[in-house]
Amino acid sequence: MLLNLLTGTLALAYAQQLDTTLTAARGQRLDVVASSGELTVRAWDRNAVRVESSASGRDRIEVSTSATAVSIRTHGRHDSDSEIQLRISVPAWMAMSLSGVNTSMKLQGVRAPITAETVEGDVDVTGGEGLISLRSVQGSVKLRGARGRISVNSVNEDVEVANSAGDVMAQTVNGEITLRVVDAASVDASTVNGDIWYSGPIRSGGRYAFSTHNGDIGLTVAEGTSASVAVSTFSGEFESEFPVPLRGTRKGKGFSFTLGSGSAQVTLESFQGTIELVRPGSENDPARRKPDQED
Amino acid sequence: MTTDRWTNRLSEYLDGDLSENEQTALELHLQTCADCTSVLADLRRVVHRARSLRELAPPHDLWPAIANRIGATRTQANEPIDLTFRRKIRRRWAFTLPQLAAAGIALMMMSGGAVWLLRTGDTRATTPVPAIGVSPSESPAVTVAMRPNASESYAAAVADLERVLAEGRGRLDSTTVRVIEQNLAAIDRAIAEAQRALESDSANLYLNSHLAETMRRKLDLLRRAAALVPVS
Question: What torsion do the CA atoms of B196, A277, A293, A171 make, to the nearest 10 degrees?
């Protein structure tokens, strides 16, 4: 292992197995561009960044450090066989920006802002605090145990946020959105082809918007919830496990009702799917539909 | 949907501009009027979406082209915009009922304005969110006036992005291209279904809002896909 204690700029290029550790100072962030392969980032209890890789001889990895960042760039061969395995250990406080193309990403234990974006590959994150933005085009996006302002986005796969707190924006086009045990005052979830499931408290004064074109919406509503609920559908259905005080209907099968004093604003829109309200813990509670097996 | 004396005052309510008595009266009215409650929910949703857009400001000299594309007008066309000042003012959302459906389109077209940025190669910048219908005393110098040819602007924005994507198609992974095309097709089907639904109920606020949102999603996906094209 190469232990580097320099604080100045360092640039290294490797063409084979890599295992190097660099000191990390508060204020530095991790910046990774990994063109392909698997990227794993985990937090450890040292103020240092360890970079391990199993790149082949024709792959190249560059590591550099400055006062503000530890930067890592991988340069794989331009064929589908290039699979760089990159494992990085970081202090939990280190914010990071990760970018890839044919890259899957797995992060664990970081307590800092995270930006992760890939084209072909899954993004799987446990942790994160502050601004958290996870995006994939062809892969799924999963986030657990996060706190902060959360944005999760896919195009062709599912999006899931579990056991997290903070404002949530979740989007996909062709996939399901599951927000499980989420404590948020602001939620905006939308997909075109897919269901949306939300379980978590509906906070007084909060805003919750769920929209799908082809798909169902399932929402847990605890007893004592105070919310103004607007339901809109064109050819879908509405079901509720408990009586709702309907005040009237609109064209297009839209209607609204108030629970309690109507403090929170809840908007439920499905063009042609079923919109369902359930009680926490019931058989149809989204939190029970998909037990969190990963945690 | 029917309108009553309160319908056109909902945006004032949302802005906190009603007197205490009016506010109380409106809240009582909301308890019995499903239409007003629904319109209010739609208004809040549009505002929520607007607030959720990123507020990164592009360099000043980008604005004229963006403004031209999205149909925004400046009160003083050649005067630089004080973006610092704009961030300080409180956003106001003074919609009238007819503007509500258009508001979704306005947001959509703001997204479309980023096409211009994309073509310059700066994919990090996003368009600012001009305040809609702000009062003159608080004007941040930019207001959005919907053009009657918004659909033409949308089509042009889509065409721009599709051209960027077509030109870069050969530099993208074939699987990625296929996935993007499949998802664009799914969005197009949703747009067509919403349009067919509107043919039988053109005044339906939900359908108008849903159509606008789905069209915006197409722009978003096209923009994202075009940004994937490696710079040659």
Answer: 30
CA-nearest of A254, A209, A266, A210 to B206 is A254
Rounded Cα distance, B188 and B48, in Å: 25
Enter the pTM of the model.
0.73
Gyration radius of chain A over CA positions: 22
Can you tell me the ipTM of this complex? 0.86
Look at B183 and A156 and tell me if their CB atoms are within 8 Å. yes
* B221 phi, psi to nearest 5 deg: -65, -40
Contacts with A225 (C-beta within 8 Å, 6 or more apart), sequence order: A202, A259, A260, A264
Alpha-carbon distance A140 to A279, whole Å? Answer: 28
Show which of residues 161-220 on chain B sit within 8 Å of chain A, judged by CB atoms: 173, 175-176, 179-180, 182-183, 186-187, 190, 193-194, 197, 201, 203-207, 210, 213-214, 217
For A165, counting Cβ atoms within 10 Å of its Cβ (0-12 exposed, 13-18 middle, 19+ buried), the class is middle
Residue of A nearest to B47 (CA): A207
d(CA B134, CA B18): 16
In the DSSP assignment, the letter for residue A252 is G
Half-sphere exposure of B160 (CA within 13 A, CB side): 20
Which of A133, A112, A131, A113 is CA-nearest to residue A123?
A: A133
At A281 the three-state DSSP class reads coil
Which of A102, A169, A267 is opposite residue B45, by nearest beta carbon?
Answer: A267
In this complex, do A155 and B180 lie within 8 Å of one another by their Cβ atoms? yes
CA distance A75 to B195: 47
Cβ of residue A173 closer than 8 Å to a chain B Cβ:
yes
Contact B30, B37 (CB under 8 A): yes
Cβ <8 Å between A156 and B187 = no
Render each residue's pLDDT in chain A as its tens digit; 295 residues: 444 444 444 556 555 678 999 999 999 999 999 988 999 999 999 999 999 987 666 778 889 999 999 999 987 665 555 678 899 999 999 999 999 999 999 999 999 999 999 999 999 999 999 999 999 999 999 999 999 999 999 999 999 999 999 999 999 999 999 999 999 999 999 999 999 999 999 999 999 999 999 999 999 999 999 999 999 999 999 999 999 987 655 555 688 899 999 999 999 999 999 999 999 988 888 777 655 444 4
Residue A14 forms contact with B (CB below 8 Å): no
| Minimum distance, in Å, between the CA of residue A45 and any CA atom of chain B | 34
Count residue pairs from A and B with Cβ separation < 8 A: 127
Chain A residues within 8 A of B182 when measuring between CB atoms: 156, 174
